[in-house]
Amino acid sequence: MQMRQFRYLVGIADELSFTRAARALNVSQPALSQTIKDLEDDLGVRLFDRSARIVRLTEAGVIAVDHARRALAVTHALRETIDAYRGLKRGRLRLGVTQTFNALYLPAIVSQFIRCHDAVDIEVLELANAEIFDRLASGELSLGVGIGPVAPPLAAYKLYTDSLAFVCARSHAFAALPTIKPRALADQRLALLSHGYTTRASIDAFLQHHGVSPKRVLEFNTFSAIMSAVSDGACVSIVPADASSVSPKLDLYFGRIQPAPPQRTVCLLKGPAGLTTPAAQKFEDIVRAYFRTGAPR
């Protein structure tokens, strides 16, 4: 088996289309199809179901893709380590972070990193917490920042604690209240993140614990969209307290919820041992120092 076969296998799995994968991999479709056929012959199983209009992974294909991703990640880590050993100032970082962390803290951290390592390419992905975990475990991400705790093979380093706050337009009647009780939200139209985000799961669990079932919910996939909707006065929301700095120009009121929702721990996340590259280690050092010395909050 060859690494080229693994790259092609993962490419098709990501696109679920031989045509799109061939385009993305810059290879002809016949060559791509033959490479996968050779891999299937070598393994003795079919990796893709081509009978339907949409290409689907077989059960064996799912297993093969998982191992292929890990193999590619290990190869990438090896190349990065050897480059560093040879003194080559190059590398690549792929970071998976939450929306709030990306908006508030990551720009300053990245700026500090590239001042010392300007030849390293950086790709930042805003992802749901569960997806950060999954991509770290498979080796697709160099590092992540998300809500702990985590389970092996991932490792976590605490950065700071995060709490949830109530937010409404300053023209809303609730803006005159020092605190908001959960039951007061039952008849409000709530703007919340879509299902699948850890923040949404935390909010749903908190409201359910207090016997609150929102009757009207608007779902968005970004905090900036939520803030804009709330600023118009048509809805209210529950968001991470740090989100008050995401849209400072909007006329919003952030208040405490009483009783307070449980605090969450925001962590620097690492994948399986042995996949850390020199660039990732340098970035980790900067993140840790940034919060150890007191990040601006």
Automatic annotation (TrEMBL):
One of its GO terms (cellular component) is cytosol. GO terms for molecular function: DNA binding; DNA-binding transcription factor activity. Coiled coil: none annotated. Keywords: DNA-binding, Transcription, Transcription regulation. Residues 1-58 form the HTH lysR-type domain. CDD domains: PBP2_LTTR_substrate. The keyword Cell wall biogenesis/degradation does not apply. It comes from the Bacteria. Transmembrane segments: none annotated. InterPro entries: HTH-type_LysR_regulators (IPR050950), LysR_HTH_N (IPR000847), LysR_subst-bd (IPR005119), WH-like_DNA-bd_sf (IPR036388), WH_DNA-bd_sf (IPR036390). Belongs to the LysR transcriptional regulatory family. This is LysR family transcriptional regulator, cyn operon transcriptional activator. It comes from Methylocapsa palsarum.
